[in-house]
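Backbones bend. To wit:
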Amino acid sequence: MIRVWARLWRRLTLSIRLGLFIFCICLFGIQVGSLDLALGSGLEGWTAWAAAALAGLVATLWTRPIEAVVEAAHHLVAGEDVSLLEDRDESELRFLARAVDELGTQLDESRRELVARNHQLEQANEVLEQLSITDGLTRLHNHRHFQDHYLSETRRSDRTGHPLCLVLIDIDDFKRLNDDFGHSVGDRVLSGVAMVMNEQVRETDYLARYGGEEFAMLLPETTLEGAIQLAEKLRFAVAAARFDIPGAADPVRVTVSLGVALFSNSPDETFNAADRALYDAKASGKDCVVSATS
């Protein structure tokens, strides 16, 4: 309602201004012609009244297209669609209205194109972001993302008091596998082991490739006993898997060693505890799970 009254008031004031302007021009022309401007009877008074009527008529006819142009400008500034053209006769002012209408159409098309390109850019950025946190070989999270996620989870555990466990995993005798079959085979086995483990973890767990043949896993809301059970589940799954190797008579079998630690206060101390547990698992004959408290 306020917008309607504002539009009517703008049209009224514009008509008055145009009318006064045109009336002054008419009076000036009459004065140049040395006519009597008295608003009484006679031809001269009738001429003055005719000038006033003509001014009002012209002002009314001009007000509508000019007001339409003004209204269109408000719509353009607001980023709204503009439509000035109806079934009207063409004139200079209406030609201006048509030009503004075409400009509005072009701006609207450009706006839609910009929105589409921004959407494409957002999708491309999402892909790049995903690639930046993903290991290219195993398709797991990479080392950098693990570090960020590890700190985030330890802060959350500190804040809530809920348990958090860290599991470090290493493929046993991986160097010998590379030496015997080549690095391309090693990469295939590494990717296969990652797939096997990723199929065993829960949705809330976080598995990443830490580097080389090493992996790291975060288990939020998990006690040390629960983490050991999940680590054993992963160990059995990897040991049961077989990996076909071109040129090999039999499928390749690998095992993993795992070190488990419960987070307590310090991210560095927890990581070192899990690393020592992994070292102990290697020293204990490999293919086993060792916790930091065992």
Summary: The chain has a mean pLDDT of 79.
